Amino acid sequence: AQSVTQLGSHVSVSEGALVLLRCNYSSSVPPYLFWYVQYPNQGLQLLLKYTTGATLVKGINGFEAEFKKSETSFHLTKPSAHMSDAAEYFCAVIPNSGNAPLVFGKGTRLSVIA
Amino acid sequence: DAMVIQNPRYQVTQFGKPVTLSCSQTLNHNVMYWYQQKSSQAPKLLFHYYDKDFNNEADTPDNFQSRRPNTSFCFLDIRSPGLGDAAMYLCATTYSLNTEAFFGQGTRLTVV
């Protein structure tokens, strides 16, 4: 079954520093990949997605992610962290066959220190 | 404008007392999902409807049921809530199975 692994359940960065949240997927066939953000007591909001085409994907709030097939990775980055970025981030996958629902990683909590 | 709406946002129910959570969508999406999310964990898929076709996850307890009377609405029924069912319940929709999901704000269920 398709799965994603998020390395680091908690990441802490200083305001203005680079944000790097790691996600690796398990599949021999590149799946569809997503990053979602969740603020406390809220639902999930889509940050960005990769289906086909350009491997560098830009999303909302200044985030981007790069699909690297050779590394089976889809890491999320942002050049400069803002206090408002503090939230839970989930990487998620849909099999390329498209016949199964979204599967989430365990999540990474991002803290931003002033 | 909210596209996936969950009611209520917060629900308190008594142990063993049936409770229903509601989800509606204005996107006219074919697929509606219910996820359970416990504290500091990833959302866990309970079941989904593709149109009227119900798909239950293998490990979803029988205590959880769902109804989708029309395209716009989907309900989660918990027949006899236990303390372990306290969680955030998230409704989501997609146009088809391989497209991005839109989530509601969630309903936080407390069992007393």
Tell me what the structure shows.
Chain A is built from no helices and 11 strands. With 114 residues, chain A is mostly beta strands. In chain A, a hairpin with an 8-residue loop joins β9 and β10 (103-104). Chain A is globular and about 45 Å long. Chain A starts with a strand and ends with a strand. Chain B has 112 residues and is an all-beta fold. Chain B has strands at 4-7, 10-13, 19-25, 31-37, 44-50, 53-56, 64-67, 73-78, 87-94, 102-103, 107-111. In chain B, the strands form 2 sheets. In chain B, strands 2, 4, 5, 6, 9, 10 and 11 form a 7-stranded mixed sheet that branches. In chain B, 35% of the residues are buried. The A-B interface holds A 32, 34, 36, 41-46, 49, 90, 94, 98-107, 109 and B 4, 6, 31, 33, 40-43, 45, 48, 88, 90, 92, 94, 96-98, 100-106, 108.
Helix content of chain A: under 10%
| CA radius of gyration of chain A | 13 Å
Q: What is the tally of beta strands of chain B?
A: 11
Give the largest chain-chain interface (CB within 8 Å): A-B, 23 and 25 residues
Low-pLDDT segments of chain A: none
Q: Indicate the structural class of chain A.
A: mainly beta
- Share of helix among residues of chain B? under 10%
Rg of chain B to the nearest angstrom?
A: 13 Å
Strand content of chain B: over 45%
